[in-house]
Design a protein that fits this description.
globular, 4-stranded antiparallel β-sheet, 264 residues, alpha+beta
C-alpha cells in the first residue's frame, strides 16, 4: 500500500488512519486492494479480549483431537482491529505490532511489513483441510485450532442447531482499503455461508441484504449463525467480526497463539 492518497477518496477517519500508519512505517511497497468487503465505518470502542464482548464460554466440556488436548484461549488484544482505532498512540502501536506478528507467524504479504521478517508469502504455508465436511484452504498453523472448534461443535449441540453449507479461507488479494490488510490473506480467517450471514457494515452490495435493513441492536438478528457457534469458535482463539462495527457475521479469524492451540 503506497503512502499516498492521490486519486483515492477517504473519509476523515480512514484518512487519519492511513496517514498515521504511513508515519509509523506499517506499509511497504504498493499493492492492489479489491473493492469489497471493506470497512464502511471504523470501530468506536476498544475490546478487552476475554471479557464481555467476546462472550467466552470457558468451563465447557474439554475437547480432544487426535489424542491431543485442545487448549482454550482468548484472542490476543493487539490483534483485534477495534483496538487500533480511536486509541491514540497505543492503538497505532498495536496495529504496527499486529503487522509484524502476522508476518513472522504466517508470512509476508507484499505491501505490509517487511520481507526479512518472513521470506515466504502466506500462500506458501496454505494447506487443504476440511471444516464440518466442507473443503477449504487455510494456514497450516491454525488447523489444530480449527479442528478443536469442529470437534467441540460435534461433541455439543452445535452440529444440531446449524449446518454450514459453504466456507472460504485464504485469499491471495487484499479486500480491505484504507490502509488495512485482511486476515484472509494470511490464511487465518474463514467465512461461513456468506449468503445468510451478513456484513452490514461493509460497502457495495453487502449492506443491501434484507437482514441489514432490520431495525435492531442485536447482531444475531442479522445472521443465521447461532450464538453457540460463535462461543465455540471463541473458546479456541478465534474472534468473530460480528462484534466489530462492520458486523461481518460470516467472518471468524484466529487471533490466538498458534503455538498454544493443543497440548498433550
Amino acid at each position: 500500500m503506497a503512502c499516498s492518497t492521490r486519486g483515492v477518496y477517504l473519509k476523515r477517519r480512514a484518512r487519519h488512519w492511513w496517514l498515521l500508519a504511513c508515519a509509523l512505517g506499517l506499509f511497504g511497497t504498493q499493492t492492489r486492494a479489491e473493492p469489497r468487503p471493506q470497512p464502511r465505518t471504523m470501530p468506536q470502542r476498544p475490546v478487552d479480549a476475554g471479557k464481555a464482548d467476546v462472550s467466552l464460554d470457558y468451563g465447557a466440556t474439554p475437547v480432544r483431537v487426535g489424542g491431543m488436548r485442545c487448549v482454550e484461549q482468548p484472542p490476543q488484544a493487539f490483534l483485534i482491529r477495534t483496538n487500533w482505532f480511536n486509541n491514540g498512540a497505543v492503538g497505532a502501536a498495536m496495529a504496527q505490532q499486529a503487522v509484524r506478528y502476522r508476518t513472522e507467524k504466517y508470512g509476508f504479504f507484499r505491501g505490509f511489513g517487511r520481507a526479512e521478517w518472513n521470506p515466504h508469502p502466506p500462500g506458501f504455508y496454505a494447506v487443504a483441510t476440511t471444516f464440518m465436511g466442507l473443503p477449504l484452504q487455510v494456514h497450516k498453523r491454525i488447523v489444530p485450532a480449527l479442528k478443536c472448534v469442529e470437534q467441540a461443535l460435534k461433541d455439543g449441540p452445535g452440529h444440531l442447531v446449524y449446518t454450514a453449507r459453504g466456507v472460504g479461507g485464504i485469499r491471495y488479494h487484499n479486500t480491505y482499503h484504507g490502509g488495512e490488510v485482511s486476515n484472509h490473506v494470511y490464511g487465518i480467517a474463514m467465512d461461513i455461508d456468506s449468503d445468510v450471514n451478513t456484513c452490514c457494515g461493509c460497502v457495495g452490495t453487502w449492506n443491501q441484504h434484507p437482514l441489514c435493513r432490520k431495525k435492531t441492536s442485536n447482531v444475531y438478528d442479522r445472521t443465521a449463525l447461532p450464538a453457540t457457534w460463535v462461543k465455540t469458535f471463541e473458546r479456541f482463539g478465534f474472534y468473530w467480526l460480528g462484534h466489530d462495527a462492520m458486523q461481518d457475521t460470516m467472518h471468524f479469524e484466529f487471533l490466538g497463539d498458534p503455538d498454544k492451540s493443543i497440548a498433550p
